[in-house]
Amino acid sequence: MLSSQAMPEWLERTVRQGKAIPLPDLLRLNVSRFHWSELSLSLPEPQTCEPLTGQLTLQRHPGGLLLSGALSGAVETPCRRCLKLFSQPVSLTIEEAFSLQSPSCLSNEPLVSGREVELSAADFVEPLDPEGVLDIQDVVRQLVEANLNTHAICEDCQYGDDESL
To answer: For 41-54, what is each residue's pLDDT tens digit?
Structure first.
């Protein structure tokens, strides 16, 4: 397999424009690792105040893909007291595994109510349809939303420091 230096222009452009990558096209490439340095992504929701910047690497491995990297920037978020939108810094470390095969958690075995089930590594892998798409922008959006401080207060909040609000 080729290294990331042979990345096709369409793939570079697709990711930089925040579009979904068609998996059939990606899987046809004879490349095991793709790297985007100096990447800049804007999100429609939550709205980015400035593009998220950083680097991402997409690696192929038997049965799946691994997306890793780091992005930082700022998004608009409402103040928990006055609801005024303000800029909140965001810094993400990305380690997302995707399976191109069905994970064990999607088996047809019925769940028994009240019974504890031990999670395996496969339960933390996102399944992808090999005929579908990988939407890196959506992965980043989900991580941003999961890492936002939902109790953030704007610097010039009209309600001051009253913790009861």
So the answer is: 888 888 888 889 99
